[in-house]
Batch of 4 targets.
Target 1
Amino acid sequence: MTAIASDQDTGQKKAPKIQISVLSWLRENLFSTWYNVVFTVIGIYIVYAVITALWDWGFVNAVWEAKDRRDCFNINKARGQPPGACWAGVTTWMTNFMYGRYPRTELWRIDLGGILLAIWMAPIWLPRVKGKIIIAFSVVFLYPFLAGYLFSGGERGVFMQVMVSAAIVMLTAIVVHSLISLITGRTLPALLVSALGLAALSEKMQRNALLALAALAFALVFWWQSGWLVPEVNWVNWGGLFLTLVISGIGIAFALPGGITLALGRRSKLPVVRVLSTGFIEIFRSVPLITVLFMATTMFPLFLPEGFILNKLVQVIVAVCLFNACYMAETVRAGLQAIPKGQYEAAHAMGLGYWQMMGFVVMPQALKYMIPNIVGSFIGLLKDTTLVSIIGLFDFLSMLRAVSQDVPWRGLHYEPIMFGAVVFFILCASMSKYSRHLEIKLGGGANR
Amino acid sequence: MATADRAAPRKGSGGGLGFLYDERVRSVVYQVICAGVFGWLVWYLFTNTSRNLDARGMSSGFGFLFTTAGFNTDFSLIPYAAGGTYLRVFVVGILNTLLVSVLSIIATTILGFVIGVLRLSSNWLIARLALAYVEIIRNVPLLLQIVFWYVGVFALLPRVKQSIGVLDISFLNNRGMFMPAPVFGDLFWATVVAFFLAIVIAVGIKRWARRRQELTGQQFPVFIVSLAIYVFLPLIVFFARGSPLTWDVPLLQGFNFQGGMRLPPAFLALFVALSIYHASHLAEAVRAGILSVSKGQTEAASSLGLPPGKTMKLIIIPQAMRAIVPPLISNCMNVVKNSSLAVAIGYSDIVALFMQTALNQSGYAIEIVAMTMGFYFVISVSISAVLNVYNKRVQIKER
């Protein structure tokens, strides 16, 4: 009476493991038929030719240190080699590639901005930390003010002072909270309550006490931050990969909420809302981004009241945000359509209102379906940001193209473009790799 | 009875403001607010714009289209010289955009299908190579690739004197590609008519063959016969009319080629980059389409005794096309839209010629932006109309 029939009981054997030798694998996958043999030979030749050519050009014959392009040729000649890659030009221009014409003494501000963003977002990937949604929202809504001030500098108004102080308080709280969570597994509020001996108080009183504490911290930071000032850097000097990431970062941060709003508008039961959203989405989706950028730079100055001048960077960012919100809207709509009608009906039957139904039932499921496409849109956005070079911003691509106009490096085309291609490849490929990982991790309920 | 309490105000009887919870009232209020905000925005932008135009002393209206444009273009399909009207500039731009788009769409479709099928090859190495192609090309911005092909390849070709000749009739150099141009004789129209006649006959044969097969079960070699009609009917007419077609071959005279037709380097760079980039996207769609046909279909076909070739032609491809055609058509749309990146390398497409040069020269920003966007909008609407018709036709008829 064994509960579980094992192999011995039934006399059945497990299927034998298939053993494949190297030779039979080769025969199966590379040389199965005569035309596969031909294909394989051609393939091996292509791989060999491409890899040896790139290897010789990029490493064997490459020159890493030289003072100009002529010097590169001379070094190759002295070594008795054919001319190879002149990486010296790329390394000389590296700071320009990364930061554009940002003042060299102020580069630490960009680095600091990047480091702060990494610190701010790191807890989202730490499994033991709670309150990830608050952290994510604070990144989207508070970090831009802190970073914006760090990057542009200058005098700041009361509003900016308040937002910068709030951002600093939030960042400090998140860092302390994450450290506490990692070490003790408790949250920052819980630890504060017990440390201050408030555990006996009612929940409401505890919350009030914590809020008072936050206000105190805010006041302290506000007083402290009013004492320092960083010099102003005009947006004209922003450039390089930094500018590309700023534009695409703002675009990404805006595209998702904007796209969700437009998609809900398009699926709305209210005809006016639906028609307006659909028209907006379809018009922006049917034209190329470059025409939207041209429209922004030529028509925004006409649209705005007299004397109100928007700088080109802001025009471009507004255009990129609107454009990508429309693309994101279609991605979100596809995700919403994948949710079975029963889910909507069940939410209604529970007595949930529209926003509760969307926020608690539909969106969490739809977002899971959408992850690959959302990340795909983000990658597209990052790649599309190179278009701002056409309308005269000094982004990464225009810096790459500028090398060949620089007198010592005149005519140096391949090396900067290769470098740029590798950078974009690493950025985009790692994003898509991560989205595949997320897709598997979240599962979307499809793997059950 | 919490639920009953919450449900009560919805009926609209819960006091003075209760009607606010009526769903119909709410929807009307929301829509009025939306329409009001939208109307206000339009009015606001309109008044600002007209005030700004007045302040700058700029005129508006489409009258400028008939004034002369004072600039030349280096490439155009219809005769154009400095001094033509802005309307003609607009047409030149549209034709140039359509030329590069159509050629790139043809090339990208062929390349995309080839790479997509290679992705599924049983040959491990070939499948991996196709994967590498797709991954590398997809993850590098198109504009960077266009710039690479332009400054890195086509602008660095040898000078006219050292042109790379192809069979001594086509020449590639840093001024572009010089090719023989067809010169049509007087009676060439008869060949064209014969070709269209061949199409009509072939369609007729196909219908007749299908009806015969349904009635008698006998098959007719439709493909071979119609191919013969397509080839021979125009050829016979062509030679019967005394071959009214000659070629104008480019000849090196002095420092440049005379005769033939020329495609500028920017065109070549744009064409190559667009074809390669979009082929990588199409390849993934082709692969997904073929994979979407379940294995049971292949098995069922072979259990019916169909040979592999017929299985592919009659069972797999028709079903795979249902999944491939929608992305294929949106890919065509993207090629048209991305051809606007021509402006980065100076190919005279509609954006570079009309939205940039003509706008800077004339200053009619609103009209020019509206016309350019209108052109893309019309193209997009017509392409999606084609897609909708196709989708209706191939949709699985569920019973």
Target 2
Amino acid sequence: MPAPLPSIKIEPPAPANQPPADHPELITFENLSLFYGAAQALKNISFGIRERLVTAFIGPSGCGKSTLLRCLNRMNDLIDSVRITGTVRIGGEDIYAKDVDVIELRKHVGMVFQRSNPFPKSIYDNIAYALRLQGIKRRSELDDIVEKSLRSAALWDEVKDRLYASALGLSGGQQQRLCIARAIAIQPEILLMDEPASALDPIATARIEDLILDLKQQFTIVIVTHNMQQAARISDHTAFFYLGELIEYDTTTRIFTNPARKQTEDYVTGRFG
Amino acid sequence: MSTPRLTQAGARFRTGHFEPVSFFCTGLTGAATLLILAMLALILVNIAWHGAGGLSPRFMFGSADRDMFDVNKAGVGPMILGTAARVILMTIFVIPVGVTTAIYLTEYAQAGALTTRVIRAAVNNLAGVPSIVFGLFGLGFFISAIGGTLDNLLYAGNPQPVWGKPALIWASMTLAVMTLPVVIVATEESLRAIPVGLREASLALGATKLQTVLRIVLPQALPGILTGGILAVSRAAGEVAPILFTGAAYYMASLPRSLTDQFMDLAYHVFVLSTQSPDIEKSRPILYGTVVVLLLLTFALNLVAILIRARVRRSLRQLG
């Protein structure tokens, strides 16, 4: 069994022109390229994501933003034809190194998917699932974490009277918040969100966005979104991708008000994409 | 001619045209369905008509008589027991092996890899092998090879073979090999129907592949696995050829007491009654009665599996 991933180390302070030092760089992509068979989906990506900020990946369909997100918890490992070159570091550790335990990595890097995918179990068991896998068996401890997670996901008040009812009976927005509760129950440091609100109505979307703003106090959040306004509302940094390349990466304010590249400006103003 | 616009005079939805092709196709498919229903009805009515009269508690549950062609002495109790035993044992053997294979094929094997394709082709070919070949395979492999080896190792000085002879366990195993493709295919289909999102959700939470399969995938696939079991039971209950050389007995004075005993069997008994009887007219009521009992037993075994499946489905829908 490979050694577990060490806990995240704090990196030296950021250079002067970068955001404040209490948001040190946590994730680093170095010349990352990814191939599906012969097709190249990511081309030489290099940039860094800072701790306890919301970083949005934007770009038209097929630009590789979801693929890049899935590099961070190595979900791409599930696809046989995927080949990766370059390095992805989390807290300085190369997560594609040979001795990395993927299972352990995924406990540090939680994920919420585009389509809410609660297990066909009770609300309680959805959250307790990963805890039980980690060997937490004591009922009182499980109860505590389930309640805490549901409260963090702003779902507790709606479901506290039916914790043992099927999760499939919840509305779409509630299901997605349950998936967020499930992901944060195991206390990851990083939370990946792959278009978490794209299947939801505006009210449910607003609740998810509020939740994301709350959660960034504790977690480093990386979110893929199709929705430009959403990126502008909730993210601190934005990375714009096009055809597998990182076109521009800056603070969200800069990307949306004064982008350096013409392509970025065209995309965020809705001229293409 | 252009279609009149709705606002124009003469626009009509109902033209009243007779569509000969559509009419013909409806008639043809309907007739084919009716034909099948009619054949099934014919078989069942015929058997029930001739067989119902012969059914008495003594016939159904009484012991077999050496003179099995005598209407007043015949009983099929031991055959019911034998058939039920071999079908239930077969299910116990085939489900674990079939389900494990299906899990390997869908969850672990690389989809396009050569080994996967070879395994899948082997499973499909296994489904196409005639049942008498399975009978011969059972005789050669289970009885001679495995049974013979066991006897050599465990009962070296024994003049009578203990394992190396036709027996309930070998007949059940032969049937299990025969029904393996049914279980594998049904299980594979039910595994494939489970959304990838559920597996991803589990893996993203730091579950191992094995934990994901055991705790998330398999419980969802249970109804499909049981469907495979039901199909296997239906297929195996009426088979004679695979048990011909591997366990079925023409006549036994006593019931089988262990897995290494031979057994009397309903389906094989139908074969015996229709080929060995000195007076086929006289023994016909017994023949029909035995067929009715065989059908009832098959339905009963299926019903048990269907009830279990309904229960599992209900509990999955409620909670899971």
Target 3
Amino acid sequence: MKIDRHARQSAKRYFRACLRPDGSLDEQGIRDIVNLLVAEKPRSYLPILTRLLKLIEIGVEERAVRVESAAPLSDQGASVFAELARRYGPASRTSYTQNPALLGGLRIQRGSNIWDGSLSSRLERLQQSFA
Amino acid sequence: MLIPNLPLANLIDNLKAAGDNTGWNTNQFIAQCVCMTVLFLVLNQFASKPVRAILEQRRKTIEEAMANAEQIKKELADAEASRLAVIQKANERATAIIAEAEKTAALRGEQRTQEATRQAEEIIKKAHEAAVLDRDRLLAELKRQVGALVIQTTEKIAGKVLTADDQTRLNAETQRQLSAPNN
């Protein structure tokens, strides 16, 4: 579906209206806006909804936090999630996994930001320096 | 015998008398003169004139032939002179062409020599560059393989030798990165 400039701008405006002051997404606000668009059916409402869905997906992914550790963490990464929420606001989604392939240390990802202190990444960087 | 200066009648008479005395017959003489004159005229008209005409024609033909021969001789001389001039010119041209060809050949030879020298230098340079690249590539490959071996060994060992304290320390390092002010 081709999304024109008007639909992009409208979707961006609706998306901003769905954000709370701390930057998190207001799920109820999103539902209200989607219901309103479906009911009113303004011009280009389908492209607007498509673009809005894409923006919401990006917003969710930007606030999703993923923690991996080589050894199991006693608090299941809660301290990391709390620190990230304190610094960047609440996460849209959190996940913790144990990954022995890391060999040691943690790998934290929030959206496009990655803090990788794992031993495997250090060895990989070392290998890249050899290459 | 002397003939006296007498009138014509006397002369004829005297001639008749003399002829009578010496066997001379004036009438016959006159008739012979007339016959000779007529014969002369006839011969002149029908024999001598055509012969003279033929002779004149032959003379003209001979003159023309001689003139033609002279003309031919002159033309032959001119042709010979032209031939010599052409040969001389051809010789000069051939000499110039040979000189030019020798000059061009020398120049081409020099160019070929320079080109061969340049190509040889280029080949040597490329070979040197290829050798350097090959050496660098081998060194990089060696470095990469040694690095991969070291890392592979480290990975195998690290999984076994890292204690719980090491894991806690590594986790704390990452969390400190997270808490760093510039993040």
Target 4
Amino acid sequence: MTAKLQRPATRAQRTTVVNGILCFVLILVVLQLWLLTATMDAFLGGDDRVVWPALGASVACLLLNLGLLRYLVRR
Amino acid sequence: MPEDPQSRFEDDLALDPRIDSPGREGLTGTTRADAYEPRRDPVDVTVAPDGRPMEEQPKWRRDFAIDWPEDHHVARRDFTKFLVLTSGAFAVGQGWIAVQSLVRKNRKPPARKRIASLAAMTAGTVVTFDFPDEHEPCLLIRTPEGELVAYSQKCTHLSCAVVPRLDQGVLHCPCHEGYFDLATGRNIAGPPPRPLPSIELAIEGDDIYAVGVQARTT
């Protein structure tokens, strides 16, 4: 039973995992793009309130992406 | 007797080279049908046409996968790496905006500048001036209704110079047909995403001064 659990994932399983991670990363990058354009628009309009929260959210997305990439590379 | 790469290659060619033949889906003619056993990593079983191991193959052959399944696998991982790189670039962009925000907060307010004489600004008069520096063209307008307004002349879309059309009550950007309301400076048509920055005015005696710039989002 234990040996069965430790068996490496099949190609189909790994492909599913890679596709799932790719989708997550894609969604996060699109979110970052939206954040960047919205923040730039607000900044050019003289509104500085959103700048730091948006930076925090963007960095959080980056860290999440790096974590997903690390998981992907190690598999 | 050591295995001759050439004879191995010729043996491989004897296999059914059709990609979609049973048991060989996605495999080229140089890899045996049993190459993708579940426990074996396909990266380790790809056989180059000359039979030498992949480490000895030229770079172009190592960069471009031979077997289709491996190609899909590598391409998606590489695409994900590229996306994460893009994610880093977006985060850096956000950081740049934050730094610019700090710089703007610590900037000294612009020195007031005399623009025109109040007596000279009759209804329908337009005066151009630069404020707060010579790279920021602005418009001082006495509307036909008698109101005194001043805006940056740079369109908020791509910084083309806007042209007042007093008879229509608008400021027109000829580059991409953007329109701003003359009375308020708000964007009313076309691609401009924000109102024109308004110039704060002060009137002292007969003199009109520009004293500040008010960027707006609505």
